[in-house]
Specification:
mainly beta; five-stranded antiparallel beta sheet; 126 residues; 58% strand
């Protein structure tokens, strides 16, 4: 009996869990790489407004006043860097040149059609 008790106690103390050989480790989380920001494109329409101050000279006379207006245009980017476009703007003005021997001159409005071009470098247009 004595040997049976010693054998039972030693078997109980040396017992351990069984490890199965077919358990797979969990797969690691995939590495997610954020996509790079695309280079800005300069192609497309745009609109805006402007407010300014104008000054001009005619001979010995000077004139000055405020200007305000709107503009709209379209730009197109060719390839990676060349940009070409057109813009139209219209300004109302209140610029007067004092009267002289030729009479008084007043600038009441101004309209322009412009061609624009440049080299794009990221967010900068040269």
């Amino acid at each position: 009996m004595k040997y049976g008790l010693i054998l039972a106690v030693s078997a109980g103390l040396t017992a351990s869990t069984a490890f199965a050989g077919n358990i797979k480790e969990p797969a690691p989380d995939p590495v997610v790489i954020a996509p790079a920001d695309p280079a800005p494109l300069w192609s497309g329409p745009y609109v805006g407004a402007q407010l300014g101050y104008g000054q001009f000279e005619a001979g010995d006379d000077d004139g000055s006043g405020m200007l305000a207006g709107i503009h709209a245009g379209y730009m197109h980017q060719f390839g990676n860097s060349f940009v070409l476009g057109a813009e139209i703007d219209y300004d109302t003005a209140n610029v007067e040149l004092p009267s002289n021997s030729d009479g008084e001159f007043t600038l009441e409005s101004l309209a322009r059609l412009k061609l624009r071009g440049g080299i794009a470098s990221g967010r900068t247009l040269f």
